Amino acid sequence: MDCLRRVLLFAALASLGATATARATQPTTTTTDVAAFARLYGVVRYYYPGDAAQSVPWNRFAIYGVTQVRDAHDSKALAASLHHLFDPIAGGIDIVPDDQPFPAAKPADTDQPHVHWQRLGYAEGVNAYATYQAKRTARAGVFANTSHPPPNVNVEQQREASARLMAPQTMLYADASSHARYAEFPLGAGLKARVPIDLTDDEAKASPEQQQAVAALATSLLPVDDAPISAAQRQADIVMGWNVYRHFYPYWREVGDDWDQQLEPLLALADTPASRETQRDTLRRMVALVQDGHGQVYDPHRPFGSLPVVLEPVGDALVVTASANPTVRAGDRVTSVDGLDAPAWMARQAPLVSGSPQWRRWQVAAALQFGPIGKQVQLDLERDGHPEHAALDYQRQTAMPAPARPEPVTAVKDGVWYVDITRASQEDFERHLDQLGHARALIVDLRGYPRPGIGRSLLEHLLAGPEHARWMHMARHDAPFDQPAAYNDIGWDLSPATPRITAKVVVLTDGQAISQAESLLGYVSDLHLATIVGSPSAGTNGDVQVFYTPSGYRISFTGLRVTRHDGSTPFHGQGVEPDVALSPSLADLRAGRDVVLEQALQLCR
Predict the structure, then answer these.
(1) CA 392, CA 326: separation in Å to the nearest integer?
(2) DSSP letter for each residue of 431-497
(3) Do residues 503 and 588 share a domain?
(4) CB within 10 Å: which end of the chain, N or C, has fewer?
C-alpha cells in the first residue's frame, strides 16, 4: 500500500510539474510575438529613465526588434528574445508568465535624487517655444525642434531660450508626493512585464557594459530602405504609431475604443507585401480607428499636389464648387473615379479617413482632391443631366480656385458688413474697425480655416468684459498607458478691445471648420456672442502633433485635450452645433446661390 501511495504521489507531482511547464510555455504566432515586443517597446522608449536608453536610435531599433522576435514560436523563446533585446539598454526589466508573481522589488533609496520622466503631452525633448515638453528629472534635457516654430526665430535663438529648460535641476511640473516605481502590464502570449520607471541616480547611470552595448547597437542597425518596404519595417511602423496613441492620445474617453485589441489585427494587416502607397493606406486605417480629425498620414517620398478644382460633399455626392480647369464647372457632380462609380469609390475611402462623421465627409472629398504629383485621375461628371468627362493631373499647390463670395471685407447692405476671416488678413480687419464698430449687423464667414491673428482680434472686439475660461488641458504624464497625473489647464484670457462691436453678429460655418476655427466657434457659442448659421463644425481641436514612423511616414494627431468653456463638457467628435442648421443643395450650387449667406442676411434685417 505504501508503495502504491508513493507511485501515486510521484505521478501527481509529475502531473503538476507538467501543468506548470505548460502554463509557463505556450505556442505563439508571429503577430503575438511582435505585439508583445510592441507593448514593451513603448513603455521602455517613453518611460524607462536610465541613461543608456537615451542613446538608442529608437526607430531603427523598432525594425531590429521586430526581426528578432518574429519567429520566437513559443512564450519561453519570446521572453528570452525580449530579454536579449532590452537587458543591455534597460536594466531591471522582469518578464514572467502571467500566472506567476514578479520577483520581490528592490526598495527605493530615498537618500539619492530620483530620475523619472515628466511629459507634457507628446514630445521628444524640450524647447522653450514648443507647447509640449519631455524631460527627465535630475538630468539635463534634450533639445527638440518644434514643428511650429515662432516666426523670425532661428534655431540658435531657440536653443538659447531653451537653456533654462535644459538644466538638470529644472522640472516641468511639481512632482507628486508619491511616484510609481514600476509599470506592470500584460505582454500577451502568456507573459507579463515589469519595467522600472523611477530610478535612483546611481541606478540611472549607464554602466560601461551598457555604454558599449548601445554603441555597438547603433553601429549595427541597418539604415531604413525606401523600397521595397520589408515586413519588419511595415510592422515597426505599426509598433511606433500604436504606442504614440496608446500613451499620449488625449481623447480615449470620448473614442471609447479598446486600443490594445487593435494591435494584433493592425500588425497582421502590415504583415503582407506592400508598396509605399499601400503601406500608407495601412497606416491610414490605424489612424482612422482613433477618430481624430487631425489624423493624417503623409509620405515625404511621395509628395502630394492638388487637382485644379475644389471638391465638397453635398448630400451623398462629391460636387465641384470651384474650378480652374475649363473642362470642369462649379456644380458638376462626380459620378465615377478612374472607372469606379462614385458611391463605391467613396465607400472604399471611408475606412481610411479619421474624425467625426461630419469631418470624414470632407476628408473623403480631400482624398480625391489631393494625390501624388504627376498622377492623372479620370473623372466622369454629371452636368445638368448630361455626362461629361475630365482627365485632371495632380499639380503642385499654388493658388486654389475658390467659391464665389463677396470681397473679404465689405459692406453688403446698408449697415450690414461682411468679413470672411478665412481670406481677410488682420490688417484688412483693423483697417475697417471704425466702420465695423458702427455697423448695424456683421456677418463673419468661418467656412474654413481663419487667417493668423484675425480671429482672436475679432473676439476681443466682441467681448463686453475679460474672460478666463480654462478649456484646453495639457496632460502631465509620468507613467505609461495614458494615466495623466494631472493637467495644466489653459485658456486665452482675452480682454475687451476698442472699439467694441455691438452690432448683431451672425457667424457662418460648416464641417470644414476645424481646430483654430473651432477655438473661435467655442467662444462664439459658449459666450453667446453671435448667431451661428450652417452645419456642425469638425469636432477636432487641440493643436497638431507629428511623429515619424521607422519607414519615414509622417503622422499627425491631436495633442491637446479641449473641452467646452465650462472645462468639462466634451468637445471632441461633436464640434459646435449651429443655431440655424442649413447646408447648400446641388440645385443651390448650380443656381449660383449661397443659401447660408442668404439666411444670414435675412437674420440681419
Answers:
(1) 11
(2) HTHHHHHT-SEEEEEESS-PPTTHHHHHHHHH-SS------EEEEEESSTTT--SEEEEE-------
(3) yes
(4) N
CA 280/CA 296 separation, integer angstroms: 10
C-alpha cell at 126: 524640450
Looking at residue 387, its amino acid is P
Question: At 138, phi and psi to the nearest 5?
Answer: 60, 20
Q: Cell 534597460 identifies what position? A: 90
Give domain status of residue 2, yes or no.
no
424-476 tens-digit pLDDT: 999 999 999 999 999 999 999 999 999 999 999 999 999 999 999 999 999 99
> Do the beta carbons of residue 102 and residue 194 sit within 8 Å?
yes
Write down the pLDDT at residue 226: 64
218 grid coordinates: 547603433
C-alpha cell read off for 504: 448683431
Residues for the chain: how many in total? 605
Whether residue 382 contacts residue 335, with contact meaning beta carbons closer than 8 Å, is answered with yes
189 in Cβ contact with 79 (< 8 Å): no
pTM of structure: 0.93
Please report, for the domain that includes residue 422, its CATH number: 3.90.226.10
Find the helix or strand (DSSP H, E) in which 412 lies: strand 409-413
Edge-to-edge strand list for the sheet holding 554-558: 296-298, 554-558, 544-548
Distance between CA atoms of residues 472 and 559, nearest Å: 11
Mark whether 68 and 205 lie in a shared domain. Answer: yes
